[in-house]
Design goal:
The complex is a heterodimer of chains A (253) and B (73).
Chain A (H helix, E strand, L loop, with lengths): L14 E4 L5 H12 L3 E6 L2 H10 L6 E4 L5 H9 L4 E6 L14 H24 L3 E10 L13 H21 L4 E8 L14 H8 L10 H12 L10 E4 L3 H4 L1
Parallel strand pairs in A: 1-2, 1-4, 2-3, 4-5, 5-6, 6-7
Helix pairs in contact in A: 1-7, 3-4, 4-5
Chain B lengths: L1 H11 L18 H15 L5 H5 L4 H13 L1
Helix pairs in contact in B: 1-2
Classes of the chains: A alpha/beta (253), B mainly alpha (73).
Chain lengths: 253, 73
């Protein structure tokens, strides 16, 4: 049998930072990247869960750096210990569900702090320290929410993801001369703890899922594989793109 | 109790609620109403209740009693 070795989607040997790696899409991305031979730096707030991800990885040479990215001192310490990198996955994110008449400043600030500001500051310090190779790739986990559609109760989250996509496009433009590409993945409802927090009942989730043309929610691995495409050299000419991954949901909205 | 019933009526956009009814018996009860009630209980009563729990009560009265019980703790 012929062994096919041609693989333009390879990330073999690439050094990649993943934030929010302790669960959900970040964890799935870490696991898939390790199976493809990448060297990973895992970041998250919860060291115990970060270690759980770490022990799920294939291969050698990975490291974990726990840090709360909303704390600028911890963020700087993280950046100081980073190697020269081929890729970053800015994946850490939180959600807050509230109808617009129940918005609170503290909730808005908290969501924007994690979903937008900490990412912008992380990249600022990484660029100052010249930790990105030429070429390299930055991928942000955004959402269809806000960017491609809106849904009741999801205003704060949608606002933050719109802001993140705007930041992503600015970054793509500003860093193009340095050979750094920047894109986002924009998932529809994906099975992570962001949607299993109990705000919606099982019946509501089931009813919502049936509205998806492909009749299911996303699996974290569905998103991870798209992230890997954007990290790989296969996407060398792709920058500033919001890649929608939603099982066809936006076709019927 | 009066205040809470008024708030629930506001969320359901009805004149007043029949507290023997279940929330789901109201046509106006949808996911946005559910999220509004979760947010209301959190902001005005300091109570964290998820959608599943709110749906579990047999009547609006039972829900109100539970809220009052918890606010007294």
């Amino acid at each position: 049998m012929q062994a096919y070795t041609y693989n333009p989607y390879s990330i073999l040997g690439k050094s990649i930072l993943i934030t929010g790696a302790s669960s959900g899409i970040g964890r799935a991305t870490a696991v898939e990247c390790s199976k493809l031979g990448a060297k990973l730096i895992l970041n998250g707030r919860n060291e115990v869960r970060l270690k759980e991800t770490f022990f799920m990885l294939d291969g050698q040479g990975h490291m974990i750096i726990p840090a709360d990215l909303t704390n600028e001192d911890e963020l700087k310490q993280l950046v100081d210990s980073l190697p020269l990198m081929d890729g970053i996955v800015c994946n850490a994110g939180i959600s807050k569900t509230a109808p617009i008449s129940f918005f609170k400043r503290e909730d808005m600030e908290q969501v924007f702090d994690v979903n937008v500001f900490s990412i912008a500051l992380l990249l600022k310090y990484i660029l100052k320290k010249k930790r990105m190779k030429n070429p390299s790739s930055i991928v942000m986990t955004s959402s269809v929410g806000g960017v491609f559609n809106v849904s009741p109760g999801n205003g704060i989250y949608s606002m933050s993801k719109c802001a993140l996509d705007a930041y992503m496009r600015t970054t793509a433009l500003e860093l193009s001369s340095k050979g750094i590409r920047c894109n986002s993945v924009n998932p529809g409802m994906t099975w992570t703890k962001l949607i299993t927090d109990g705000s919606l009942t099982d019946e509501q989730l089931q009813e919502d899922m049936n509205r998806y043309p492909l009749k299911r929610y996303g699996d974290p691995k569905d998103i991870a594989l798209a992230i890997i495409y954007l990290l790989s050299d296969a996407s060398s000419w792709v920058t500033g793109t919001s890649l929608k991954i939603d099982g066809g949901f936006s076709l019927v909205r | 109790m009066e205040k809470l019933l008024k708030s629930i009526a506001e969320i359901l956009e009805v004149e007043e609620v029949d507290c023997r009814k279940k929330l789901s018996e109201y046509e106006e009860w949808d996911s946005l109403a559910g999220l509004s009630l979760i947010a209301l209980l959190d902001s005005d009563y300091g109570i964290t209740m998820n959608g599943k729990e709110i749906q579990s009560f047999d009547s609006i009265e039972d829900l109100c009693n539970e809220v009052l019980k918890r606010t007294k703790l």
